[in-house]
User: Fold Molybdopterin containing oxidoreductase from Enterovibrio norvegicus FF-454.
Amino acid sequence: MSDKKGHSSDTDAQQTEGIYDLYDKHPETADEKVFGRKSHSDRRGFLKGAGLATMAAVLGGAIPFHRNMPAGMVPAAFAEGLDDVTIAGKDGLIVLNDRPLNAETPPHLLNDDVTPTARHFIRNNGIPPTAVDPDTWTLTIDGLVDKPMTLTIEDLKKNFDVVEQQLVVECGGNGRAYFEPKAKGNQWTLGAVACSSWTGVRLADVLKAAGVQEGAVYTAHYSADKHLSGKEGKLPISRGVPIEKALGGENLIAFAQNGEALHDMNGAPLRLVVPGWPGSCSQKWLTKITVRDQVHDGPKMTGKAYRVPNRPVAPGEKVDKDDFVIIERMPVKSLITSPETNSEVAGKEILVRGHAWSGDRKVSKVQLSNDFGATWIDADLSDPANDGAWQTFESKVTFPQAGYYEVWAKATDDQGVSQPFAIAWNPKGYLNNSFHRIALVVKG
Ligand SMILES: Nc1nc2c(c(=O)[nH]1)N[C@H]1C(S)=C(S)[C@@H](COP(=O)(O)O)O[C@H]1N2
Ligand SMILES: [Mo]
Assistant:
């Protein structure tokens, strides 16, 4: 299993397509090739079939719970992995695109309760500003307010409570890579999420000081990055949130990340952090917030951007543009951060650890399964450090014998909503909160 993406490897020299590609294009053929049977009901033939040898060789062991494994599903061992590329001040991020720069963090590098700056993902829509000067940077508050104002970062620190909070930022498109049919856009797998400790002032305090007027409906966020076209005045992104959300105490105008200046690619010197909502609400390189009397209509607010159909749709279905609604809170989700997927583990009892979150809500339970979802155990779950922080889960998982296993995680929030097994498909590939699966080879 040297090639994580499953492209032709030395274990199967005559194979022309990788298993990943094959599952992509011809799931039935792939299933037949891998398991040696056409349908789920034939699964019993698997142990005797020629597929066993192939599969065991590629995965590194037989699959004790193979009867439970749904047909047509790519084993998690093949479901992720691209080459590491280096970005200054970042550690181990996988680059998906270089212009604009987009990079995600492999789950096992997100094991810390508080995400180090070096491991916070990067999602840019345009070209970031260069040579920013925190001493002369200003933030303007205008629109439907009694006292429009322009403040330096020093003014923010002097005039408002400075607070430090652990806050989840997750891109609305995190998990897009697993949609079928494929959705256009960055093919995020699992790592467009992080929970750093941010220092700043509360957005609500600043808005209240400016005096939000009656009739305020939405905020509009502006920044100093440039559109990819380089055209003056053309904005790469300008989003906002309903005024009720903006006035929540969890949102920060942040000037520090994990006790130091923000990373250039994470919005230095000043950004919004709106936890639990699509990352796109958290404007980086923030220069202005306008309070509006209507839903904001800046770039990436309208059309199909950061929107989903207002009803469940079939995979591949064409949806009328009038049937799209703006994504608000992000759904309940969990991520296994230890052990690393595709690792070999020794011993029959393994500590499994990770994080769980649910936008604007608390997670009340995380469950783990090592038998493809047939049985589940409850993991220990920490309280969030503060509103908007993720929670950490941990549990020993026992494996009955050596072999290939998958560990699945499922979180349930305080409204009783759980992660689904299957992805609710939508045209732009947002909000994929299906179970996280890791692949483990247990050595006897
Ligand atoms: N000015 C500006 N702010 C932005 C963006 C951007 O392209 N420009 N991208 C948004 C999106 S889509 C996401 S998911 C988050 C990602 O934050 P990060 O790059 O610090 O991880 O920033 C948001 N804020
Ligand atoms: Mo995003």
The domain at 98-326 is CATH 3.90.420.10 (Sulfite Oxidase; Chain A, domain 2).
